[in-house]
Amino acid sequence: MRTERAILIAFFGNYLINNVVAAVVALLGLGGNATLQYVVYFVLAAAAVIIFTWWYLKGGDKGNAMKDAAIFAGVAFLTAVVTAFVSGISGVLTQTGSFSQLVAVLPNFWPFLWNWSTLALLAYWIVPAALAGWWLQRGAKPAMSSAAPRPMV
Predict the structure, then answer these.
(1) CB 109 within 8 A of CB 87
(2) Which of 13, 24, 43, 104 supports an S-S bond with 52, CB 3.0-4.6 Å?
(3) What's the chain's Rg over C-alpha atoms?
(4) Mapping DSSP to helix (H, G, I), strand (E, B) and coil, where does residue 93 land?
(5) pLDDT per position as a tens digit, 48-60
(6) How many CB atoms lie within 10 A of CB 103?
(7) 114 near 51, Cβ under 8 Å?
């Protein structure tokens, strides 16, 4: 497994999804319909995840693409959660300059994890990545057996 590559692509993908995809959805002018905005965001994020999964799997063994894609998706989800945590604590520390405020804010991270948006984050990383891995693995050539053929007697 290429751990460094997975983390870097996941971090870049998380950044682009959180900023570029969200900006595109905001510019679409969907008339204030929040539900439609969430659906469009989810679809565009899933498309971006498919692209990032393909990028991660490019040049790898296509026979294990589904497993590698699932591992990549898990690493990407964890990268997104850790990024949110680090951004939150660094933001509090930067704004207040107080470690006591930082300690007071830390328990608020657990309800954030148990929110429905974390489940959506998990879904838009896992489902499209697994789909991309399945698609790439489907086109892989079967592995050649190294055993010698048995004579027909």
Answers:
(1) no
(2) 13
(3) 20
(4) helix
(5) 999 999 999 998 8
(6) 11
(7) no
pTM of the shown model: 0.81
CA distance 45 to 61: 25
Q: CB of 132 within 8 A of CB of 55?
A: no
Could you read off the pLDDT of 61-90 as tens digits, one per residue?
A: 888 899 999 999 999 999 999 999 999 899
The span from the CA of 59 to the CA of 15, in Å, is 24
Residue 96 has which token pair?
Answer: 């207040």
> For residues 13 and 5, what is the distance between their CA atoms, to the nearest angstrom?
12
Q: How far is CA 140 from CA 24, 71, 111, in A?
A: 35, 19, 42
DSSP 8-state code for residue 147: S
Q: Cα separations (Å) of 68 from 55, 129, 135?
A: 12, 9, 12
| Torsion, Cα of 86, 91, 94, 97 (10° steps) | -90
Please give the torsion angle defined by the CA atoms of residues 60, 147, 138 and 12, in that order, rounded to the nearest 10 degrees: -20
